[in-house]
Amino acid sequence: MAEQRLGLRFKMNDNVNCLFSKGYDNGLATTLDMSMKGAKLLLDQEYSKDEVLQLSFVLPNFSPNVETNGKVVWQEKSSISDYFLTGISFDEIPELQKGNLYKYLFSGHYNQLRDNCWSGV
């Protein structure tokens, strides 16, 4: 699968849960990595490409939750479990929540940001 990320992704060191729903179908996902534009989630259900999920990310020490719609851009069965690795592209995030996501990602992941952006400089 070709890499098509739109933003720098940060691996989640914290347990960032994602509540999601599609119609009456609700679930809890594990967030594996995240950027300002999307995330990689571990889901217990299979979804089709371009399906839209309602998402609510519970960030440690930040309120309110980051809530947005996200489109499934890819999905593959995990090789080590019955779950599905799922790439999500976010719709627009409200300004306050976008600010919280930005602060969470960039304050809590300094070493990863340094390693990705300044290595070899």
Explain what you see.
The mean pLDDT is 82. The chain has helices spanning 95-108, 110-117, and strands at residues 10-11, 17-22, 25-34, 38-43, 52-58, 66-77, 84-90. It has a single domain (12-117), classed as Thrombin, subunit H (Beta Barrel), CATH 2.40.10. It has a six-stranded antiparallel beta barrel. With 121 residues, it is of the alpha+beta class. Helices cover 18% and strands 41% of the residues. The chain contains two helices and seven strands. It is globular and about 35 Å long.
* Beginning-to-end CA distance, first to last residue: 29 Å
> What structural class should be given to the helix and strand makeup?
alpha+beta
Q: Roughly how many Å is the radius of gyration?
A: 14 Å
Shape: globular
Quickly give the CATH architecture.
Answer: Beta Barrel
How many domains? The number is 1
Q: How would you characterize the largest beta sheet?
A: 6 strands, antiparallel, barrel
Mean of pLDDT: 82
Number of extended strands: 7
Brief account:
With 121 residues, the protein is α+β, with helices and mostly antiparallel strands. It has two helices and seven strands, in the order βββββββαα.
Blueprint (SSEs and pairs):
Blueprint: E1 10-11, E2 17-22, E3 25-34, E4 38-43, E5 52-58, E6 66-77, E7 84-90, H1 95-108, H2 110-117
Antiparallel strand pairs: 1-3, 2-3, 2-5, 3-4, 4-7, 5-6, 6-7
Structure characteristics:
121 residues; alpha+beta; Thrombin, subunit H; 6-stranded antiparallel beta barrel; 18% helix; 41% strand
